[in-house]
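Structure first, sequence second, as always.
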């Protein structure tokens, strides 16, 4: 059984630079980390390997520095990792990103189960997994909260739809997105860090994909265009009140700011 986990490097905070021309995040402008939801996807793959055996691979798409999250996955137990990077992919929206990832998955080949987190903390669309499955023409199950059984040909899982919990069985190969807390992610291991220090991160470029038409990737292949994007303003204004009857003053302040309305 071969599991492929989709992971992503996201900004560590909201204090990142924005390209004013394209409206996209300058991902090299600040500190970054692995998308927290992807940790649950990676833990799921590692648990499945422990129970049913197999190989755990990871795939990320981004600038060269995104390879650091692949190395982090090695420290958690992943067997191999791929970095999909090319200037042609810059500025990709959800559709272009999903298409590029699906092309990379086809290039890697022989994947039984693709696993991804529920969403990312930078885009929050929760659409990449489902769109990848469409491009790959494989079944997709979303919001997985528990895996019941895995065989050589199928997987059975519980999905939280918000109003009900459904038990779903699909044939492999398939893609699934997992809910937060499906399992508690393990911490990176110093022992594994040392053991995998020389393990290569396999790099894929546009030329490695079956479809090398740049019009299908990046800004050119993105039907969604960002009109304006900016980080939130930081407000640090405050007052210190040192007086009696603070309750009355707070009440009058809340009324003046229209948080409360005085009854007639």
């Amino acid at each position: 059984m071969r599991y492929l986990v989709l992971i992503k490097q996201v900004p560590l905070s909201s204090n990142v630079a924005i390209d004013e021309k394209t409206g996209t995040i300058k991902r090299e402008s600040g500190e970054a980390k692995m998308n927290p939801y992807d940790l649950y996807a990676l833990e799921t793959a590692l648990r499945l390997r422990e129970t049913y055996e197999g190989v755990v691979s990871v795939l990320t798409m981004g600038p060269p520095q995104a390879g650091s999250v692949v190395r982090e996955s090695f420290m958690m137990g992943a067997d191999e990792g791929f970095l999909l990077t090319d200037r042609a992919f810059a500025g990709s929206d959800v559709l272009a990103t999903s298409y590029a990832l699906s092309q990379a998955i086809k290039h890697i080949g022989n994947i039984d189960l693709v696993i991804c987190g529920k969403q990312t903390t930078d885009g929050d669309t929760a659409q990449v997994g489902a769109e990848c499955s469409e491009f790959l023409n494989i079944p997709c199950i979303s919001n997985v909260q528990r895996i019941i059984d895995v065989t050589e040909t199928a997987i059975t899982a519980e999905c939280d739809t918000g109003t009900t919990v459904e038990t779903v069985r699909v044939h492999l190969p398939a893609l699934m997105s997992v809910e937060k807390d499906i399992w508690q992610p393990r911490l990176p291991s110093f022992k594994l860090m040392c053991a995998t220090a020389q393990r290569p991160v396999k790099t894929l470029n546009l030329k490695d994909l079956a479809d090398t038409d740049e019009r299908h990737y990046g800004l050119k292949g993105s039907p969604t265009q960002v009109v304006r994007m900016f980080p939130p303003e930081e407000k640090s204004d405050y007052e210190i009140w040192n007086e009696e009857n603070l309750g009355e003053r707070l009440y009058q302040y809340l009324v003046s700011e229209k948080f409360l309305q005085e009854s007639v």
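Margin note: The chain has one domain: 2-216.
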